[in-house]
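User: For a teaching handout, I'd like to show students what a predicted protein-ligand complex looks like in token form. I'll give you the sequence and the SMILES for zinc ion. Please answer with just the structure.
Assistant: Understood, here is the input followed by the structure.
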Amino acid sequence: MYCQKCGHENYDSAIQCSACGEILVPVTKPPADTLPPLPSYPPARMHVVGPPNHLVWAILATLLCCLPSGIVAIVYAAQVDSKFMAGDVAGAQYASDQAKLWSWISALALLVIVVGYVMLAVVATLGSTVR
Ligand SMILES: [Zn+2]
């Protein structure tokens, strides 16, 4: 064992350091060794280490809103995993960004349509009331 005072290596059976005379205390193991092993994730989750594919948002955007921009988002979202699995991390990241971008565009378009519809309804209601 090593002397805690001077670092001199002594026999494991030694009770006193042969270099400095320090009483040797049995070295306690670091707590890391006594901790239970980290939980291992199921294999199904192991591949999800690439950039997020935003596929859910892309599909939601397509269903709830504008088909064209939503399809663009889905196309990019579908490329994220395949590109990442092929080792194209940069391409996967780019596709991820594009999927997010087009999902946002779809969401904003939906917002514009809804707001526009509401405004039209309000204007129509006000118009009929005023008259
Ligand atoms: Zn010592």
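For the handout, you might add this sentence: The pocket of zinc ion is lined by residues 3, 5-6, 8, 17, 19-20, 22 (CB under 6 Å).
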